[in-house]
Amino acid sequence: MHKLVVNYHPSAAVVQSAETDEFLFSRYDLTYPVLPYRLSANVIGGNPTPKDTTPWQTWQREVCEEFHNEAPHGETLRDTTTPFAPLEEIHRIRDAILAGARPYADFHVSNGGISLAEYLGGVGKGLKEAEFVASLPEKKRMELKNTGLVTRAQAELISIFHSVIPQEEIERVKHYLAKGMRLVTEGGSRVLTRNQLVNGIEGEVERNKSYLTAHTTPFVMSNFLGLSHPIMHPERSSAVRLVTPVRASYADYESDPMFDYKPIRK
What we know:
Blueprint: E1 4-6, E2 11-17, E3 22-27, E4 41-42, E5 44-46, H1 55-66, H2 87-99, E6 101-111, H3 116-121, H4 129-135, H5 138-147, E7 154-165, H6 167-178, E8 188-193, H7 194-199, H8 204-208, H9 217-225, E9 237-241, H10 250-254, E10 259-261
Parallel strand pairs: 1-10, 2-7
Antiparallel strand pairs: 2-3, 2-5, 3-4, 3-8, 6-7, 6-9
Helix pairs in contact: 2-6
């Protein structure tokens, strides 16, 4: 029996306006070490810790840690210059996201990694190879030298929730982003429309040298929007939505023979 390999198992949510075709995402900033995904939008969530026992618990914890103005215990803020929106406003958005959430589906994503040739010939077009390699953190330069890949190959299971929030909370997000203020402790936030997700934003990929959406997000959003062709993504990545629902606990995945389940917990 062929098993689905699971190296990572994050939990995240599609956060949607109740009234418009707008969606709220996390956004990687310019410190993110994976260049093809710098400034890219990502579904809101993160990876489990050793203490987490369910995908739901992981996602709730991630949302509560992110929508705050202080780093989680034992961590530090990388961005110490961008001002936060008022904490009560951040918590209004956070509470709306949590209150409107329900399980959606599990997705298994096979990521073969992005080769140097694919990146420089695609979203990174215009970059000089030597300058690009020199700009990488030392760890990423070594990975590139050893594998020929700009991003690591991995197999991932992602548990997705769906949260519908009032349009006033979307407007609240846009208001503070327009004022140059932040709502989350790591990276940033972004609101995108269905049309922007499907058709892209003119000139943005070329300017940023990165994909509009990161990691599993193009596959999750393509499925959610019912698209016949997936949103722009790396060539050697693919995904399938599982017919089984989001499980009640991580133990349920560990005991299921359909998985080779050995996710890294941080």
